[in-house]
Amino acid sequence: MHTSAAGSDPSSGAVARRRIAVLGPRGQIGRVVVRELLAQGAEVVTVSRSATPPAGVFAHRAVGADAPEALGRALRDCSSVIVAVGLPYRAAVWEREWVPLMQTIVAAASDHDIPLTVLDNLYAYGRASGPISEAQPLAPCSRKGDARRAGAAVLEHARAWGADIVLCRAADFLGPGAETTVLPWSTITRILARRGGRFNWFGPPEYRHSFALPGDVARGLITVCSHPRLRAAPAVHLPAIAPFSGDELAAQLARAAGGPVSARVLSRGLLAVAGLFSSAAREQLEMRYQFASNYVIDDSVFRGLVPGEPRRELSDIIALARPGR
């Protein structure tokens, strides 16, 4: 595995002394984006409803993303905006709020001709018959996927009218700090600390699934923010960990833990019953299709333009979770 974060990225250092706004600076990815921008010497402007600024930023502006004029004023002196906002993981909330949120952000940035780099997931693609590339048509098969496709249409419309917008799609998060995801990091660290245990897997454990390390996602967003060739396309896939199956995860965790590890397979029926008592289970039920076959992201466009990007294997991720690290 390559260990250099920046590698031979031609845009490495390109954000130094630039004033870059981060929307959603306290989320799973937003807080990592802030940290990485600061490490690269950017002047970071964070924008959120919270009145408390993250440590070390150039400025913090307490503005809700539902107020386009106020948001526009908060962004007007920034050279670029990275959008890492999220909503509660409920389909009804996404259906109601995601499109208006994208419309507000686009309107605020367009008023000042500020480029947008927007984080998204893979839900709009729906089912996959092979590796998912940027060329795959959007064909969502879930309510949350429909909401994401509708939000993407807002960005595509603005781009058609000349706005500088790139949509960056990432696989499910796996790594330090990622908890609201299908494989919470605390589950992995607990298995290693207790020398064995079980983790949830949402389909047959022989199928492979793509995940992404939060740090790689954050650095990928920053790279897209300043990389002209990556900005030439309307959408790009951010770098992912090499895909793995539930069986492979169990085997590697067992070797690392020195004890038995197994996947707890959550069938559709089990999730449906759990959904009677748990809103999280209800929301996950419609996304189970992603584990019913191989669900693998193709990140070759990004890697072709950023040849120094680290290639993470499952073993690298497990090493991050070892006790004492």
TrEMBL record:
Task: Give residue ranges for domain NAD-dependent epimerase/dehydratase.
Answer: 20-229
Q: Which SUPFAM superfamilies match?
A: NAD(P)-binding Rossmann-fold domains
This chain belongs to the protein called Nucleoside-diphosphate-sugar epimerase
The organism of origin for this protein: Leucobacter luti
